[in-house]
């Protein structure tokens, strides 16, 4: 079962400038930052709200760290904007298998590492009416993380 | 203050087919459907989760009802995909004014009617790192609506 919108992934050319835009315009603060070498991105996670499954919904700002990363190629084609949406689930393995059985292409054989120790996979956008769709199971300690003190 | 991701707006060519995709693939059901003549769209609202501000997060599936609507033009250029993201607030008027004062273009002079009796406005995507961004204040009775029985 998919129990929340976990995050909206937004691709940008300049992570610091985009973080600053979201901070000054809306008041959202960075809860967590990391580099995901496998995905070829630097990312900042901004927590927007808690959800009734005990998790939270985030904005995930993404800047490519190498020109051959999927996000770099996407930015070169589309410019800045919403790159993907992610649904949270307690069971990314089971959901991915069930969705694959329905004929939707799942991009990874096994879930990979996502933000904050989560496990993630992606569904092919051409099978999802144009929406690159991620499934994510949070690391237990991060599920309902409150913002850091500032 | 923006207190939740209210919805993700997804543009599609065939509303019924897209609703069916979200139902059969993920189990999301339509809570509400309407035509917004001013926006030139037919829409279906799929409730994903409740939020800790007493509201909810939705998928808003949008099909244009006329060729000159903004969503029709967007689809002709981009194909199906994520059209906009929307932040929920108790005070769309005050938030729009504060954001305009920061130099971000707000597309309407006054908020207009959105889904389920809400009041909405949009921020110019070129001022928001490529993201068409909506601000929405829900109608009081719809804020935390549970799914319809099926």
From TrEMBL, chains A, B:
<dbReference type="InterPro" id="IPR017515">
    <property type="entry name" value="MeMalonyl-CoA_epimerase"/>
</dbReference>
<protein>
    <submittedName>
        <fullName>Methylmalonyl-CoA epimerase</fullName>
    </submittedName>
</protein>
<dbReference type="Pfam" id="PF13669">
    <property type="entry name" value="Glyoxalase_4"/>
</dbReference>
<dbReference type="GO" id="GO:0046491">
    <property type="term" value="P:L-methylmalonyl-CoA metabolic process"/>
</dbReference>
<dbReference type="InterPro" id="IPR037523">
    <property type="entry name" value="VOC_core"/>
</dbReference>
<dbReference type="GO" id="GO:0004493">
    <property type="term" value="F:methylmalonyl-CoA epimerase activity"/>
</dbReference>
<comment type="similarity">
    <text>Belongs to the methylmalonyl-CoA epimerase family.</text>
</comment>
<keyword id="KW-0479">Metal-binding</keyword>
<feature type="domain" description="VOC">
    <location>
        <begin position="4"/>
        <end position="138"/>
    </location>
</feature>
<dbReference type="GO" id="GO:0046872">
    <property type="term" value="F:metal ion binding"/>
</dbReference>
<dbReference type="InterPro" id="IPR051785">
    <property type="entry name" value="MMCE/EMCE_epimerase"/>
</dbReference>
<dbReference type="InterPro" id="IPR029068">
    <property type="entry name" value="Glyas_Bleomycin-R_OHBP_Dase"/>
</dbReference>
